[in-house]
Hints:
The structure holds 2 protein chains of 2 kinds. By secondary structure, chain A is α+β, with helices and mostly antiparallel strands. Chain A has 22 helices and 40 strands. Bound molecules: zinc ion.
Amino acid sequence: MLVSYNWLKNYVDLGDLTPEELAAKITKSGIEVESVEYVAEKSTDVVVGYVESCEQHPNADKLNLCQVDVGDQKLQIICGAPNIAEGQKVAVAKPGAILPGNFKIKKVKLRGVESNGMICSLKELGIEEKYVPTDLADGIFVFPEDATVGENVDERLNLNDAVLELDVLANRADALSMLGVAYEVGAILDQPVQLPEEAVTVIDEENVKSYISVEVEAADLNPYYGAFLIRNVEIKPSPLWMRNYLMAAGIRPINNVVDITNFVLLEYGQPLHAFDYDKFDSEKVLVRRATEGETIVTLDDQTRTLSEKNLVITNGKEPVALAGVMGGANTEVTAETKNVLLEAAYFDSSSVRGTVKQTGLRSESSTRYEKGVDPNRVKKAGSRACLLMEQFANGKVAAGVAEFDELDRSGKTVEMDINQINKRLGTEMKPDEVISILKRLKFEFEQNGTVFSVQAPTRRRDITIFEDMLEEVARMYGYDNLPFTLPQGASQAGALTQRQSLKRKVKNYIQGVGLMETLTYSLTNATDMKRLVSPEIREQAVAPVALAMPMSEEHKYLRLSILPELLRALAYNSARNHANLGYYELGSIFICDEEKVSKQPDEKLRVSGAITGKWLEHPWQQEKKDVDFYLVKGIVEGLIDHLDLNVSFRQAKIDDMHPGRCAVIEMNEQVVGFIGQLHPALAKEMDLKETYVFDVNLEEVFVAYEDIPSYTQIPKYPSIARDIAFILDENIHAGDVKDLIEEIGAPLVNQVGIFDVYQGANLEEGKKSVAYSLLYQHPDKTLKDDEVEESYQKIIEAVHEKFNAYVRS
Amino acid sequence: MREQLEAIQAEALERISQTEDMKELQDIKVTYLGKKGSLTGVLRGMGKLSKEERPVVGEIANKVRESITAALDEKNEKLEQLQLEEQLEAETIDVTLPGRPVKVGGAHLLSSIVQELEDLFIGMGYEVREGPEVETDFYNFEALNLPKNHPARDMQDTFYITNELLLRTHTSPVQARTMQEYKGEKPVKMICPGKVYRRDTDDATHSHQFTQIEGLYVDKNVRMSDLKGTLDTFAKKMFGEDREIRLRPSFFPFTEPSVEMDISCKVCNGEGCSVCKGTGWIEILGGGMVHPKVLEMGGYDPEVYSGFAFGMGPERIAMLKYGVNDIRQFYTNDIRFLKQYHKA
Ligand SMILES: [Zn+2]
């Protein structure tokens, strides 16, 4: 809502508050003023001048040579405007004047003739072009007769006005009108509100009912419809002050009749619509739901196809307006209009909202209907417009109003106990303070001891319950004046849950081993949605989870893997010459296990990482190595070890992964993620160097973590270490041998490690040597050498039998 | 013989005190105390002495041996010390050369801020709650006093999946869920951080995905002044003890009265500058007293219980605190950005 400071002064005394000071007060009381802007930049030395003569320039067809009286002197000015004429009162920038944009006016010679100043258009005086009335768009501005020669133009053109832009939230529909703002400012400043005149002065003997009748078939959507008739109007520009206020409020003046409806709309917050009565083609207004497929050509010359959801105003035959949204072209007021049929109606907000949504038409009118208008102002606004048409369009207002009226105009009564107010706010207000606040707000009330029965005015439809009044009292009391206290309730200890602590533990570990945390989008595109999905998730996810109305194809599906977006982040950096990176993210994926989404998808926590390029960029005193499989595996093993859990890795093939360098991670024989090298083809497509990824299902990890005993005894008895190296066929997995050693060695063998793999000289072609370290430990006794030896030999035999392996001597 | 012994002693001690060389010291030892050494030689002649003389000379000889040995040991230790010092001196390295690098990771700026906020509120007795990012229309809107067709639903442009499912537009549904879970039987004191989504076009100030952290406190006799005190404590811990807060009336469907909280601008100290658009204040969060309908739907009797709620955006906090000027930076994951802020 744009509020003109000068216009507002008509309703409430602003004292000597500057627009900025006023804005600060309004903001603090609850309606945020987003900006204060002046109608025009300050100009100096622009006055009203009288064009005494106007002749064609001797050396230029399109220029005129004018002699202009500016009060203290007479100036010869050359003017190129097409509408300049002798006898006009115009805006003259004298030599030395400065116009908006720091444009200095100097004496100049134009085609050999001296020009001492400039005759100005509204645009040149700083008014935004889109608000300049169309009839004044290409020419200079001409003042009405009563302008005084030599007077400064600022005040008459309202150039010194400031416009406050109010950010009106959904609950304060009342502030979408000048009167509403006046009540608000009146409450803040403790000032009365001066209401506008509404009574028509000349009573026409003809009653409106002899011209028009009103019938409403949809009373639920239109409980009040009032039709006024103004005859013999003279269409012309509206008075200068009205045009000024409209321009300040961001509305372009058109003609007096249209301007008056807009002016009253802004003044009362009540939309009005003027029909050309002679084009109405009927003596009856019929309001009804549109029929399916019915059409109307709206004022913007668009043909709109309607449905039963739309409420329309008809002449009994065809629609003439989309109720509360826009009029029809067939009954538009034009320069030829003589008789005006004026609508002042109350339309249901949800119906208007529906039509706005459907047509995309949003106007000053529809905005107000959508938020709800004051039922007690509908008819008054109609009367006010009639009075203005009488005054400024020379119209004859027919007596009375043709109406349909089932409107509930009652307001809410809210009870409030001052004790309850103090208890909720933490204040110690006295009844007198509350009374003074209610008076400032101009709310009627009855007092009974500490209990107030407040009659909420219908302009404030947001006030329906105690808490609404609590807010009114609090904001008038001043939020600044509330004390600072801390809750008195029994205090409890706050803490993270185990799951939350675990998340932090995982993050800290991964950051500790050198990966940078990232945050990527959960919404992805159709390709990435299918990429790099862990096998156990691919099994569960039946249908994609897609947005009904995405903003773009790029962000349409909820992710099933964090990795694609993570890789995108790597690619982004790689393209900027940062190709050595280790990134990770901990976040949710979204699994839908139905054919068609009907319930919330399962949100599963995962941690995924991707590393690419060189692990260390400047590995001083270390080998400069590319990242590889065992680096990423080490990170995952470390994570699992950090959580005191066990997993195993099994060679696997996963789409978009290197077929020979990929493994699933298994915990208790269940897949809980995967690791490996990103398929070189995909890496190339993304312009990435060799890239390795991991993806771990934290849900399963956290569940397993639950089962870990909180403490195990540290063994009291010494352990015995043994190493053993096997010569194996090169295609045998070292891990499988390890598994066997663990199986056979149990329970004496406590730990098995792999510490060397060798292939080459001294070994047969196709063979490799893998060295294992074994740690023997008994919980209850010291192991004897022969016990260890016996187990050791059993292991050698078993490995030989199963893998055809020999001990390397 | 005694003279002979004393002469050996004097000579030996003199030589020991003169030498500065380990090898020579070893030679001295051999010369005097060795099997063929002079002291040994003298002692060999002891057999020729009388019974009476033997113990006397023997004693002298022992003393001479002891004194030489002691001198040798002392000198040896001294020389070893010197030798060690020399050796260490020779081992001097260039300490200005770089250390062997370790790969350093770090937390995302938003994670750091969320964690800081979590810890701050945990310290004030709040628990941390989480909830689903795909929500039902009921929990995201209706349970928060935003029935279907409520005009304020337009304030939040929502990503719908089906008519009933959507990406949550705020973390408030977690509040509704928690109240329901507690069945109106005990106080609720919680914060809920998480990802939220709005149907916005990404630009410098809008992101279709962002982070939110909200707080809720429901108990008997919760006052609006408690909200003011709590927010003041939060603001001072988060932004500095010298910050002041200001509450302004506002509107949210789930609170009544509603507030918007500003903190005094750090750049200009409230004088007004370009950062605070000349007002001296910067908007930080919204909140208010929990709307009775929200309490009711959560299973809390608004006649008995009251509460306050507040919500803020870690992105906004980061932008203010660290001067990040484009919200997309948080989700682009430019390494230069991540590195710059991972110590936050
Ligand atoms: Zn500032």
